[in-house]
Amino acid sequence: MLRIRGHIGEWPVDLSLELDDEDWARLGARLAAGNPGAPAAPAAEPVDRLWQTAQQLLRSAGQMDGPALLNQLQALAGKRLLVRLRHCAQVRVENGPDAPIYHWAE
């Protein structure tokens, strides 16, 4: 059993995890590999597909205002993709009269 106690902000945390021998072996293998916090490759794959879909959405449209783009992206995975597009090298964001306008600038 592994017990974690502490605080997240002002909220107290008291968590007990029960690990069987297989779980401990996997945890030990991760620690021995020197990458304890790295996500497994299959977990990252769906996010990359969503990211590619978000880029393709804007690329196909050429440009979209922020609210319209956000509505499209929320249907895919939420606001996180909009923030990621804002910082993408192929995307230029300009201030529109009511909302930012995202341009595919490749």
UniProtKB/TrEMBL annotation:
Domain of life: Bacteria
Protein name: Uncharacterized protein
